Structures are given as structure tokens and as C-alpha cells.
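seq:
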Amino acid sequence: MALARGHPPAVRAGDGEHANPHSYPRADDSRERFQRDGAGLVVFKVAEREIEMNAMALSVAVAPEMAEDALADHLIEMTVEDCQRAFAEGRVTAEALAAAFLARIETYNPRYKALIVMNPQALDDARAIDARRAAGEALGPLAGVPVVIKDTMDMAGLPSTGGWHFLSAEAGGVDLIPATDAPVTARMREAGCVILGKTNVPVLSHTGSHANDSWAGPTLNPAAPDRIPGGSSAGTATAVAASLAVLGLAEETGGSIQNPASAQGLVGIKPSFGLVPNAGVMPLAGSTRDVVGPITRCVRDAALTLDALAGYTAADPKTVAGIGKRPAGGYAAGLDAGALAGKRLGLYGPGWRDLPLSEEAAALYVRAQKELEAAGATLVADPFAGTGFAAIAEPTPGLVYFDARGFESAPYDLQLYLERMGPDVAIRSFAAFAEATKAEDAFAPGGVLHPITNLPGLAPCLADPASPPDLSDFLAAREAYLALFDRVMAEHGLDALVFPQMRAELPPLHGPGTLLETTVCEINIAGLPGVTLPAGAYASGSPFNLIFVGRMWSEGDLLACAYAYEQATHHRRAPTLDA
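struct:
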């Protein structure tokens, strides 16, 4: 696979975004950063000068017990709290920490293929944080923390490839280089995060199961390398699971946060639609379903990241809906190990979706229910029974129980996305995109998005992508889901739902099997939030996760419940990696 690099962003632009008027150099333009491996592919290398500088930084800033080898050991399962404690005690600098993670990426990424584009400014960004800290500036909890972002999130000067060889110069296509950051990227920068690079996805993020068809090659699941990693944010989940970063950003249209988090035994937040901006993120359904959220190894880190991401921006008018919906003091401030006491939680059953759990999934779910009850929760069996909730779904032909309503907006949203990238981008319109990719037309029979052509509203949008699409079918489904969901929650006095995130263990990495989830269509069409977290493992070692689902804007309550369960059970296990 190729690990490319981009040109450094030059200046700040409006609404906290980076602007970059410069061109993007190919990977082999910089010998000190890259070298060809035996297969002729480009592999990231840190410049010798930077290695020397970081060795000096380690020797100066790291206490004797935190020498380079010891620091490498501390990277495994490192949390935001661990980072900040080490910074505060003077045991490590942000530069040394970033360098250590880059070295770990160099060791493990060739096998696991989590990252596909590196940020050449990462060490400079870390040094800038160190300088601000040394000057006595008060910094936030994410300052100096090494993170990754999904390939589809624009970062000025770095390519957004959508996992497709047509959109990657390293794979023989053309690079799409945005002039500005996506708002979520800008917010991570403003929080002081050190963005190490961008992560692998399947072609156009078309599947919630894997990244097998990416131009960079398939991403592996560190928790179960012979099983699917979940998608489409496969690379972000693998980078976090393998401790190649402290945390990462993911994006979901149809499971792409919750699926890979669950598949790899991680924490993921699928936010309410409109809470977090999705402008500047390569869309599938930007007008209707797309959301950005964190994938982390612990609930607190997810809450801290959501604190940085959530909120209104003029760059994405949809976020006006979230004004006044965030908890006072933020999401992390509301975490409480006793939060499950007295809570009423609804359980999975055919009233929600008439598809059964596997025998082993059912047994793991029963065990989890006992853990929830021991923490003080009251459980309500199948509260949706007899309500008609399950009948709202209209699974799209050609997909495994997936209701694609809302994807009608894909051409329109892609047109807006390409226009936002700037006047110098290589592909500036949906028509140009279709022309550049016509050899593998995504919407034609056999194309990765062909199943959504079953949606009646898609054909008019394909014919005229510059005009807003007819979303009446989607909007009717959203209204039906929300009305019935709120009614059931009120009638049963429920605080949240808690389901197994998957109905069965993961299928093999290569083959026809897909991730069998429980909540994707329902909460993505409705726009509802969910928080998934580890709850054990199958006998095979495949992870088992729960997902807490709640009313619109209830992320604070869901995170509190998830945190209480996490603190009571500690199910997360670090995988053993092979280089």
C-alpha cells in the first residue's frame, strides 16, 4: 500500500478552517520521508534529522523510567488522561509522543493498513503545542494528543481519496486536494490534537463491513485478523484498536461508526444528526444521514472528543438544530460511575426488528443484562412489541437488511462537497466525477452504489445533481420513526435502550458475509444517537459490544450509562499484534 503525504497548510481561513493554496507533492518527491519497499510501494519514513531531534527530545523530556523503549510500551491502550498526566509531570513532550506513535505506525501499519496518508506536519504541530505549554498557556484536554481522522474528512493539503483508485494519484488516479479543512478537522486542530494521518476506507464508504476494495488494500481487525474489521471507518477503528493513535474520527451513514467500533471492541459515538458538522466530509447522504463521531478505547476519551466536535458552525447550517442541546459543562463532565442506578432500559426484541440473535450472542446479552441489573438498572423486555415499529423499515433490494432511504441525496451532496473543496480541485462537479470514474460507474449494475438505484428519488437527482432532491420518502420514514420511538420511550418510562450491537459474531474477512447489526437503519434514518462499547467476546475471540440508544440529543445520558457499565465491567482487552 502507499502512505502518501500532503503539503502543509499555509494559513487560517474563516470559521477556524485551514486554507492551503499550494499544490500537493507526490510521495516520491521527498526521499527523506519516503522510500520504496520491495514491491515498489511507497512507505512512510521519518526524516533522519527528525529522528535525531526526537531522540534528543526524549532524552531531555522523559524521566529515566520513561526512556524510549518504555515510552513505546506506554503507547498501548494510552488514554487522554495518560497523555495529560505525562505532559503535566514533564515526563514526555508532545513531540516525543508523536514521534513514538509514528514509529509504531511504521512497525505495524504495513500489515494492518489502518493509515493511508500521513500528515507531514505532525511533528511541527506537536512542537507548537510544546511551545505553547512551555509558555504557560492553559491548554485543553486534547492538546498534544496524537489522533487520526478518516480519509473522507478534508484536511487542507492532504488528499481525500474515498478509498477509490480513481481518486488517488498514488494509485494512478487524480488527487482531490481540499483548500480548507472540514469543520471537524479544524476543531480537532483547535483542540490542540496532533493529527498523524488519514485512515483507510472502502470505495466511497459503500459498506459497513470492511475496506477490502480500497486502493490501499484491505484493513485488518487487530482483535480478530481473520474476521472483518467493520466499515466504512475500518482504518480509524484499526488505528485505535492497534494503539497507532490515542483516538480517531469516524463518520457514519449506515453503521460506519458503530460497526467498526463494535467489530474491534471499541467505544464509538454515533451522534444525533445535526449535532456535529458534516460539511467537508465526502458524503453518501450529507443532507439526511451522515454524522461524524469519535472512536476511542474508553468512554471518557469519546466524551472529551465529542466536547470538541459538537456545536454550531455557519459552515454547516444543519448544526443550528443542535443549539441549546449540549449539556451544561460538556459531555465528559456528566460521566458518573453510578449513572445506571435507577435507570429503565429497553431490551432488543422482534418489536424493534424481527431478526433473532445467534445462540452465542443471546447468551452474551443475558450476561450483560445481569451486569446492568447489578449496576442498578431496571430492564424492560421488548418495549416495541405490538407497536408496528419494525414494519417501518423498507430494506433495499440487493442489500442485507439495509434501508437506504436518504441516499437519494448522494449526487446532490457530492456536488456540494466538490464545490466546497475549492476552485483548484482536480474534480469540481458531479459530472466531472462521473466522467473520471466512468470505467467503474458506481451507480451502474455491479457498481458499489448500484443497490441505491432502487430508491425512486435517485434517478432525478442523478439527472440533475445541482438541484435539491425529492426526500419525501425519507422524511416520512424519519417522522414515523421519531414519533413512535418517543411514544414508546414515554409509555414505558425508558431512559435508553440497550441492545447487542451485532446479532452474531463477525464473518471471515474474505467472503460474502456481512456485519449483522441491530440498529443501523433505524437510528440513521431517525437521526437518533447511539453509544457502543465493549461487553465481552465470543469464544472465537470476536468482540461483543452493547449499544445504548436514546432520544435525540441524549448523548450525555447515553455516555453516562456507558461509562457506568464500563467502570463496572472493564471488558476492553488490548489485542496482540503481529508486525
